[in-house]
Amino acid sequence: MKNVVTGLLAIILGLIIIAFPLAGVIAVSVLAGFAVLILAIWFLLAGIMEMESSKTVGILYVILGLIALIFAFGLIFNPALISFISGLVLYLAGILMIVAGIISLLGGMEQKHRVWGGVLGIILGIIYIILGTYAFSPVYLGILIGIWLVITGIFSFLGED
């Protein structure tokens, strides 16, 4: 029963986000921003507390906290930042998958599973780069998030015993 409710909520939320993609991106960005803000506060407090036993570690925690604080406010007040980060991560992951696929192809010509693993890595890498291109736009990122929620909801239904 839990999977049915979770699946239904994911599908409904996904359809709402597909209909209003910018609202979905803003919500994700603000939530991520508040999560990073909590982390930033923890780093700052840990840095201040650590100053007594190790100045170097304390200063590093404070610097990390300040960087996280800037990043948190960027996510909260500039939702386009999450689109940039999402696109960049997808690009980097795609490039790494393509490189790993090529390495697997070159190193495993005599082993069939390595060849197919390499081909799959290259194909998935290309898909990631294509998705990364769309993720740079907040509207397309919202649509991708909505599609992901709908698919997750469908799989929740399929996983019901």
From TrEMBL:
Which InterPro entries does the record associate with it? DUF308_memb
One matching Pfam family: DUF308
TM ranges are 29-48, 60-82, 88-108, 115-134, 140-158
Keyword set for this entry?
Answer: Membrane, Transmembrane, Transmembrane helix
What is the name attached to this protein's record? DUF308 domain-containing protein
Which organism was this protein described from? Methanobacterium paludis (strain DSM 25820 / JCM 18151 / SWAN1)
